[in-house]
Amino acid sequence: MASENASSVTELILAGLTDLPELQLPLFCLFLFMYMVTVLGNLCFITLIRLNSHLHTPMYFFLFNLSFIDLCYSSVFTPKMLINFTSKKNIISYRGCMTQLYFFCFFAISEAYVLTSMAYDCYVAICNPLLYNVVMSPEVCSSLMLGSYLKAFLGAMAHTGCMLRLTFCDVNTINHYLCDIFPLLQLSCTSTHVNELVVFIVGGINVIVPSVTIFISYGFIVSSILRISSTEG
Question: Which positions, given as ranges, span the membrane (predicted)?
């Protein structure tokens, strides 16, 4: 179906944030400024961690990856959105849209699992400080990051692969400023039940597992701090 889809729909139109001409320039300047701050801030942070050997610790290792993900995540859709603010036709190619969807999902999922790894790192540091260097060894940290990217790869492949099987009809205007899952599903003229099931299962896992792990980790952290406070009191 991907080949059929590619032959029938070669371009899609992004509705964007607004169609009011008087707001295009102010929004362009605002988002350009925000994007520049994001890029420069993350690049400076990445460079600082890379060059300073004192920051080569598990916490900063995860922050390094989080900054990298944030930099890539914002770069997936912001440049195209900025171009659309200054152009009359907000067009994106079908292949470009599917590529944007894949990387949008990939970096969103990987960010969730990196935050989970950081929560676990805090839990070990506070609740098991004597075993911290053993538990959070470089090998363990690398494995956590590899697992985060692997889960993101599988999740993004599932969402994008299911989207490629759909056939889009004459209406090709995406009611969004980027190629996201649900706005694309609304354009399909074939059944989206499989896609909705994948969103429910894959999306549910990638939301529930990190959220529950983070809440449990910080629950143990708060409990440990309260025990220390009551003992000292």
Answer: 25-48, 60-81, 101-123, 197-221
Q: Which domain holds residue 141?
A: 14-221
- Residue 231 domain flag: no
Q: Is residue 9 situated within a structural domain?
A: no
**Which of 195, 123, 118 minimizes the C-alpha distance to 161?**
195
- Alpha-carbon distance 39 to 187, whole Å? 33
Q: Helix, strand or coil for residue 13?
A: strand
Instruction: Let me know if 134 is exposed, middle or buried by CB neighbors in 10 A (0-12, 13-18, 19+).
Output: exposed
Please spell the DSSP secondary structure of 96-118, one letter per residue: HHHHHHHHHHHHHHHHHHHHHHH
Among candidate residues 183, 187, 212, the one with its CA nearest the CA of residue 199: 183
2 occurs within a structural domain: no
| Residue matched to tokens 């429910």 | 200
Count of domains for the chain: 1
Long-range contacts of 125-133 (CB under 8 A, 24+ apart): 125/59, 126/221, 126/224, 126/225, 127/220, 127/221, 127/224
pLDDT tens-digit profile, the chain (233 residues): 444 444 367 888 888 887 788 888 999 999 999 999 999 999 999 999 999 999 999 999 999 999 999 999 999 999 999 998 888 778 899 999 999 999 999 999 999 999 999 999 999 999 999 999 999 999 999 999 999 999 999 999 999 999 999 888 777 888 888 999 999 999 888 889 999 999 999 999 999 999 999 999 999 999 988 887 666 65
